[in-house]
Amino acid sequence: MNKACLKLYFLGSGSIGIPSLNALIGTPDIELVGIGTQPDRPAGRHKTLTPTDVGRWASEQNLKVDKPPSVNSETFLEYLGNLKPDILLVISFGQILKEKLLELPSVSCVNAHASLLPFYRGASPIAAALLNGDSKTGVSFMKMERGLDTGPVYCSYEYHIKENERASELEDALASLAGKHAPDVLLKIASGALSPIKQDDGKASYAGKISRKDACFTWSEKAVEINSRSRAFYPWPGAVFPAVLKHGLETEIKISRARVCKEMESRPGEILKADKHGWIVACGEDALELLSVIPKGKKEMSGAEFIRGAHFTTGDILPSGKVNTEINNLKTNKHIGIYR
Asked: CA 188 to CA 181: how far, in whole Å?
């Protein structure tokens, strides 16, 4: 086909897809025939109907956005068929695409996935890479099929994870990486210059959905593992531990930023340092300096600011976090730390 005639329909909900969408809109050889996102959902204390990140962004740009309850319905399939898209690009959408929809575009259904496939197929590849201590990850452009992220891959782009980079920051970096390459990749797919290559299923690993239980940890874990958890699950659900403040007030504290302190060991949960400069807590191996925290019901604050109000002292013992007896569904049983 003539690349100047490439008709594209975009499906996405999360903010990770916005840089790609923005780049595609500005590409002369691509005609964006439509944008689809998840319907508005109740959110917040008052359950106010709230659009997705893509829905909000599209409205701000005065772009029409479709919000189909099901992209597999006959109504939507007929609507999309009339638009005659060559490529359907899917990034963090939130609905499963069935076979009729996958076969509708004249060229391909393409998914931009935030991992170097076949590693970390599934819902939470960014968290999985951080939780497992990987040194690099990336974005893969994949031809979609019925399986969960099992389709052949057109191309992948690597990203080297920065020290103490958190999930929200890594997501922004991968979003920019996808946006940088999306126009060129899609044009090459449409022209036949890129052919998908089958994934090596023997190397596949999976990253399941994140839940509140993933916030749980105990101080008997290694400091590097607790730090990885806080980075992987930031901002939600975080790495959370219980504490007793002055006057016996019980609360929960989320780690926002931390630093591993090597060769500092004592009883797990013991506060090794608590002064105007901050605080350090002993772990099962090494110790963790809590650079910033978020006490329950409060805003993020520095470790030093928290200590001034909490009245913790050196030698105090923090209660153990709730033990999570279920196997963490992001900690894969093979290819752990595949890029350390």
From this structure: 11
